[in-house]
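Protein Record: Sequence and Backbone Structure Tokens
======================================================
Scope: a single protein chain, as residues and as a discrete description of its fold.
Tokens: labelled as protein backbone structure tokens, with as many entries as the chain has residues.
Position: the record begins directly beneath this header, with no further notes in between.
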Amino acid sequence: MAAEALHVLARVRSSGNTPSLSALAALLRLLFRSGEVRAAWNVFEEMATMGPRSSLAMFNAMILGLCHRGMLRVGSGLLGVMEKKFGIIPDVVSYNILIKGHCVFGWSGDAFKLFEEMRRSGCEPTVVTYNILVDVLCHAGRMVEARRLFDEMAQVGIKENTITFNVLMDGYAKTGRMDEASAAYREMKVRGLCWDGRLDDAWELLRGAIEQGVPVSVAGFNALIAAYSKEGLHEAAFELYRIMNKLGLAPSTHTFNYLIMGLCNQGRLNDAQLILEHMVSKGYCLSTSFTIYLDASFREGDAVRALNCWDDMEKIGLQPDFIAFSAYVNGLCRLDYVNEAYQAFAKMTTRGLEPNNITYNSIISAFCRAGSMAEALKLQQKMRQSGLVPDVYTSNILIDGFCRQGNLKMVDSLLSDMCSNGLIPDTVTYNTIINAYCRAQDMNGAMNFMNKMFAAGCEQDIFTYNIWMHSLCSNHMLNQAGKVLDELVTRGCPTNSVTYNTLMDGICSDVLDRAMILTGRLIKMAFQPNTITLNVFLSHFCKQGFGKRALMWAEKLREDSFIFDDATRNISDWAQREMENGPQVNNEDIDRCLFLEFLMLMTYETMHNNRSLKARHVPADKGYAPASSNMIKILDTG
């Protein structure tokens, strides 16, 4: 059959036609199954030099065939070939095939090395990856390690499936640990209910087991504590922790990590810090715990807390791993501590922790935001030299950086390089470039890229339309902006507050009759105004010489406890200056003022009614004393 397939392939090529990638990939699999390894390799090499561009599917077919024949070293070598020579990044399927192959042929140690390499490269494992590795550990009777890997899945947000639990239960049963096998079965049921959001049912199941005197594992409690913490139900999570202690079950590192994650997600970093201090005092494993707290501190914008956390890690002798270093570099980049981030980046590499695409993209982005484009380009080059392939995200970051500087010539060059390297521009790429041309008042250039986007089959989203409408409104082309709105409605593309505020800003600057017509259409669409909408109207009061009205409205909003931002306060200062200048107004200005009054009143009443409606449905807050002695008492119970 393989010989016939090769004969058909030869006839197709002799006729001048090019076979499809799917047909060639199927042929490769057939040749490997037939044991025709040399023929498969010849087909692959011919495809690489003469045929269509090599694809990820082709490489995965080759790796699968090599693994079936036990040629694991050759299969692993293809990972480097596909990335460095062809610019094709291995995916989770590539790694899963190799990991499974190594496990089947008894090379589990190499399988785990591949697993670590996979994570370092930024390729996220799936439940299939974990199932393969948990299974090989269970077959070897290494149940403690299997359980540790199983628990890690929940830590990284991967949902276990029936296969995972069956593998674990089978491992416990074969090693004579029937109580743990039964506990794993109950845990499976509890986790299933938690994943379905049936937390009350999960608790009833757990409580029933406790009341019947049936052994319940720490992992079973952890599953429900994780679910409560994820939903922000801290009291329930800590109540479960108390029950664990009463039953004499020692909480694991995962127990505390779930509690820390829940507190961090709610911004309760002081409470999370107390748990960390408790873990330090009790000698728990702390690497993941500190990383969770570090990342949360950066996300809250608390650089001092984050830096103190990093220093504390070193003080207690904790060596940051790849994940901790990545969180530290990314956090510094997020807060624009560019120099500090680069120093940490350099330190990371000297410790043998190779940054992945995500880390490189993060620091390249920070350099771009700082306007250091030369440094950003150097990092992209360094990225290539380290064996990583810059992806679409890397290109988008650099394109955005040059767009911010108005260097559209360099943007065009980067776009060409992107396409020549086999990267396909996405919606973000086109939106960034279109926005840059619009800011440069080059409507023809913007329209040119709109057409290119359409021709490339790249879907225009609400951001594309908002950019275009903002440009039209800025150029007083309100009729065309209205047509764009019609097109949005026709296509069923959901609009958002940016669409509304952009058009309202244009309406306030346009001819009165035309503005009123478009306003009527917007009102019918039931848009929800926000603080930015208020700022739009207040600023137009000032622009058109009605500073006194702006101040009166600002005062009314303040009395009703509307939330002001920095822009609102700046507009109020502007209004004060306008009122002091005392400009003269004519009848046309008075008509415009009445129109602005109408828009402002409509917006005020809508927002006021929405606030009243929400207030009636907010449950009473029982409160929880942050960083209180209660937290210390809870942790020290038992």
